[in-house]
Amino acid sequence: MDQLELFELPNPCIGVCESNQRGYCKGCLRSREERFNWHLKPAAERARILKLLAQRRARLQQKANAGSQPEPQPGSLDLF
């Protein structure tokens, strides 16, 4: 039995509708299939997609943080 949702699950669209090289929207990180008929998808499917989006955002943030870390200088000790 499906859990009763007390609140409507939000549409993650932020109005930046452009696909990246992998086919994900640059604004909301959904695939074309995930974007298609969002309002008609069952709540369980929308919840699954929202979890996937959180994982994608976390991976992008990790990549961004890794790219902004300064390279250690030769001969220096990187203790932190």
UniProtKB/TrEMBL annotation:
Pfam families in the record:
DUF1289
Domain of life of the source? Bacteria
From the UniProt entry, list the residue stretches annotated as the region Disordered: 61-80
**Protein name, entry field:** Fe-S protein-like protein
Species of origin: Alishewanella agri BL06
